[in-house]
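Appendix C. Worked example: N-acetylmuramoyl-L-alanine amidase
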Amino acid sequence: MGAKQESTSGSKDADRRLGRRALLVGGTAAAVGTAVLARDELARLWWRAPGVEKPREQGAVDYTGARWVAASDANWRRADRPDDFGIDMVVVHVTQGSFASAVRAFQDPGHKAAAHYIVGQDGRVTQMIRELDVAYHAGNRDYNERSVGIEHEGFVDRPQDFTGEMYAASARLTAGICARYEIPVDREHIIGHVEVPGTDHTDPGPHWDWDRYMKLVRRAATSGPPSGGPTGPTPSGTGV
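Step 2, the predicted output written as structure tokens:
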């Protein structure tokens, strides 16, 4: 499985981060002699308080044509991206298994990892985590916070698994993500899991055709891929 849990503890670090940010905001507000900055920051962070959740539309997807199947809450953490963490990267993964097995893994709270999307060999796209939330997919906290993770059905040592339908569907998906967050369409911002610092994964592997993929992403980007979202709820199910 390409996705991997964050490399550091979640809840305690999140609490400490919130505390540090509150102190920074408070200090800045005092320095400028106004509470406006602190008030604005607290307005964005109110839902992080215990027992409070930011309103969500159940089943909404960020990419037109994606099918919504929710991942387990244990495999991601709630956020408000790109307001709290800027998104500047797409990470390409390979499932090392079937489409169905990836869906089951991401729904398993014991797996402790999931990506935002899965793309099948037939070109179907399932979204399991909202882009505004942090998925545990890269094995690196910083990269998780700043990226969208896309899994691709197959095995790294089977070039036949990377079909034309998969490349085309994934390229449209990536082009839409790049358009939403103004991410440059280049290899510095569209990377493989293997390129994430500290990871022990090798996906998408030597048979992933980066030249072909990037040409398709650029073509989709210039032809006006669907980039707005969320698009509203879609039927849920197994995604298979």
